[in-house]
Amino acid sequence: MHVRDVMTPNPITIGPNHSIGAALARMRRGGFRRLLVVENGELIGIITDRDLRLAMNSPFVMREGWYDSYLMEHIEVRSCMTPDPVTVSADDDLLDAVRLMRKHKFGGVPVMEAGNLVGILTETDLLNCLEQLLEAEKERI
Questions:
Q1: Which is nearest to 71 in space by CA: 29, 27, 22?
Q2: Number of domains making up the chain
Q3: Helices 65-74 and 49-56: crossing angle, nearest 10°?
Q4: Predicted TM-score (pTM) above 0.85
Q5: Strand partners, 109
Q6: Of the candidates 43, 40, 22, the residue with the CA atom closest to the CA atom of residue 119
Q7: How far apart (Å, rounded) are the C-alpha atoms in residues 111 and 91?
Q8: Is the per-residue pLDDT at 71 higher than 90?
Q9: pLDDT of 26-48, one tens digit each?
């Protein structure tokens, strides 16, 4: 089995100059926990819901509620994203990708093909795959 057999194709992306508020809204709308950051058609980073929480919830800063809204609209994605994310190829063996994700504790990795972003492989994709395999095994017995 290959990454392409399980990945989510054509992932939703965001630009590095968008606000973290826009990123959060896009994640909520799509039910995602991460967005790939693309600039001029090139993958440059990944931002997760955890990155956004860390940016907004410093335990060392006390502030009023209106300031949270201000920060959400004025902090750019580029300041919170992980640049140059680890990627996998659409043709990679799925087991290799799973091991990479587990080793680095990644919840998702961008999928590339010929230098182009073609998908994302997430924990949810892997759980869906596992469910299908277990159902097939159950029917076989």
A1: 22
A2: 1
A3: 130
A4: yes
A5: 121
A6: 43
A7: 9
A8: no
A9: 999 999 999 999 999 999 999 99
Task: Domain of residue 33: give its range.
Answer: 3-140
Which amino acid, 111? Answer: V
Long-range contacts of 107-110 (CB under 8 A, 24+ apart): 107/33, 107/34, 107/48, 108/33, 108/34, 108/46, 109/85, 110/11, 110/36, 110/43, 110/46, 110/85
**In this structure, what CATH number is given to the domain that contains residue 128?**
3.10.580.10
Q: Which amino acid is at 22?
A: A
Residue of 28, 73, 27, 30 lying closest to 46 (CA atoms): 27
Q: What residue has token string 């993958």?
A: 43
* Amino acid at position 70, single letter: Y
The closest alpha carbon to 9, from 130, 139, 125, belongs to 125
